[in-house]
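User: Working on a comparison across species. This one is Heparan-alpha-glucosaminide N-acetyltransferase domain-containing protein from Microbacterium alkaliflavum. Can you predict its structure so I can line it up against the others?
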Amino acid sequence: MAAPAGVVERSWLRSRWERLNGPARIAGVDLARGLAILGMLTAHLVARPELVPADPSTWIAIVDGRSSILFATLAGVSIGLVTGGTAPLRGPAMRTARLRLLVRAVILWLVGAALIATGVPVYVILPAYAVLFVLAIPLAGLGARTLFVVAGSVALVMPWIQAWLDDRAFWSTAAGDRVSTLLGWHYPFLVWIAFVLAGLGVARAGIRRIEVQLRMLGAGTALAVVGYGLHGLAAPDPMLEYSSLATAVWTARPHSSGLLEVIGSGGFALAVIAASLLLCRTFLRWIVLPLRAVGAMPLTAYTAQLVVWAIWAAIAIGDTGALVEFRAFEPFPPLTLGIVAGCTAWALLVGRGPLEWLTDVLTRRAVPGRPGPR
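Assistant: Here's the predicted structure for Heparan-alpha-glucosaminide N-acetyltransferase domain-containing protein from Microbacterium alkaliflavum:
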């Protein structure tokens, strides 16, 4: 005998609610992802002044660079969680997990390439995200302490190599421009793998534990103070930033991949994740549920804003690449509210985000098996 329609409906809605709020999800991680998406929306759609810490009217510029670094750090957290959390998977289970990460990387790269083809004038992060996934695969079996050591070593060394590479004439050629686009070089993987490994490390350390969250908050805040503090003391001139290797490295300017940006913004990302986790231990987790819904489907939310942008600009302007003209429409409020409302409704009424669902289906069909607990 079939259950009454009302019972079936309540059961379905309850399962959607539990998927977003049950013990299988980490609410603070979803919140941090939601904040990263909101930050990238702001960076894309709002013209901002240069950040002056003493001037609150410029604080909106805090999204520059930091949102994408937060996104990369959270990628490491996600990789850590799907490969075993505090106890890395072993043997066949880890091989399955690694192969699935590889398939996800391919899917991310393809979605990124499609978004680049829209002509929307942003540096699409997904190709870089895909490369970072691939680089993290062989390191997914490491423990927390080793991951932190490797992340710290990369953070201290690779900005110097990155600055030297960025100075090569190749990047000014047509071939260099294509390679830069295909690899997401605006988010250079040689440096940014440090953020992924730091996120992977905190997942291995036990991101659900309050003591780990408090240590993350303290360490992240300290790193941010050091990185941004040294930048403030040096007061580097942006016009002279590339006059030497040292000036190119000794900066915290957003998207510079300088040593001080890696330290400061990497610390900022850890502190934001920790603060989100701690906040979601309180009743405030219900107030921020819409942002958590966005963070539960970040690929869908990120893709949606660029697709809507491309369609809107093509119809209204006839040019998807006209950034100043598109910003004149003040698209941030309607796009942001639409994405937050859409993700919230979808999460509560349907469940997993459509692109997240499709990615999972394709990944599981490409690599069958059970890598371990989800």
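For your comparison, note: Residues 19 and 25 are 7 Å apart (CA to CA).

User: Helpful, thanks.
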